[in-house]
Amino acid sequence: MTGDTALKTPQEKLPVTVVGAGLMGHGIAQVFAAAGHATTLTDIHADTLRAAPRQIARNLEQMAVAPDEVLAKLRLEASLARAVAHAGLVIEAAAERIELKQQLFADIAAAAPGTAILASNTSVIPITRIGRDLDPAARARLVGTHWWNPPHLIPLVEVVRTAFTTDAVFEHTLALLRAAGKQPVKVLKDVPGFIGNRLQHALWREALSLVHQGVCDAGTIDQVVKRGFGLRMSVLGPMENADLVGLELIRSVHQLLFPDLDGSATPSPLLTELLDQGRPGMRAGQGLLDWTPEQADAVRDRLARHLIALQAGASPDA
């Protein structure tokens, strides 16, 4: 990517294509359409693609935003080649299967302009592996953009560079996301899970271990997090908190605690036990907890209302 394609002002708009209209894709498309970009959404599943505008309209109405102006910026396209033909930025939001993503990017690179930024929303797969078979020019334009669910409400996007990503592509991607109202962070080394998911799954590993050992039940884990240290985490990060309490104390606690923490390199046996019992999670009504449809809907609604309220009252320096 040459210097004359770099983002010059926050007002510059590029044609954006989002590949995958499901759980994450329609929300990502919503963000760019709301920011004024001509946005194309494509999906191999016709029903998923047709449902996307309704889901976006529902999101916007929940946010007290009139949907018409945003939806006017959105175009649906069944053909991947046509969807990416004029894109300045292509974001892949397909299922977490490495072979699928590799094939998608081969097809995207063949059909998109040679200056288009190519981005993957994978939550855990290293970007270098996804772009393994691309030619050098396409690999240089490939970055990770890991959004969080729901993408239209969570400010953070992890922008992941590989050893092949050019500085111009990396900085351009960060600028596009900032201009769209997101808060991107730089992931300077392409490791599995990037930053956020490594932190989140480290917590999950210990939580599942505590339940499996009989230390507490699953509901207690949630209460400890939500009513304890989780209350301060949105305003006091772990590094700030470590400095606040003092690194000498942190080291002393770790000397006592770390030898007893779960260090398994494989998934918790508890997950296998629950899956074998036909308890895969909320959509089935049973997982670590039991769920009625009404309880499941209430959780989703509570999360959305909480994030909307935070967004409305967010400090510019947050």
Brief overview, please?
Helices cover 47% and strands 11% of the residues. The protein is α/β, with parallel strands linked by helices and 318 residues long.
The CATH superfamily of the largest domain is identified as: NAD(P)-binding Rossmann-like Domain
- CATH architecture descriptor name of the largest domain: 3-Layer(aba) Sandwich
How many domains make up the 3D coordinates? Answer: 2
Share of residues in helices: 40-55%
Helix and strand run:
EHEHHEHEHEHHEEHEHHHHHHH
Helix/sheet category? alpha/beta
Indicate the low-confidence ranges by residue numbers: 1-8
Mean pLDDT: 95
Ends apart, CA distance between termini: 32 Å
How many β-strand stretches?
8
Would you mind describing this structure in some detail?
This protein is of the alpha/beta class and 318 residues long. It is globular. The protein has helices at residues 25-34, 46-62, 68-71, 80-84, 98-111, 127-130, 136-139, 167-179, 196-213, 218-227, 230-233, 238-245, 247-257, 269-276, 293-312, and strands spanning 16-19, 39-42, 74-76, 89-92, 117-120, 142-147, 156-160, 183-187. An eight-stranded mixed sheet has the order 3-2-1-4-5-6-7-8, with helices on both faces. It folds into two domains: 3-187, Rossmann fold (3-Layer(aba) Sandwich); 206-312, N-(1-d-carboxylethyl)-l-norvaline Dehydrogenase, domain 2 (Orthogonal Bundle).
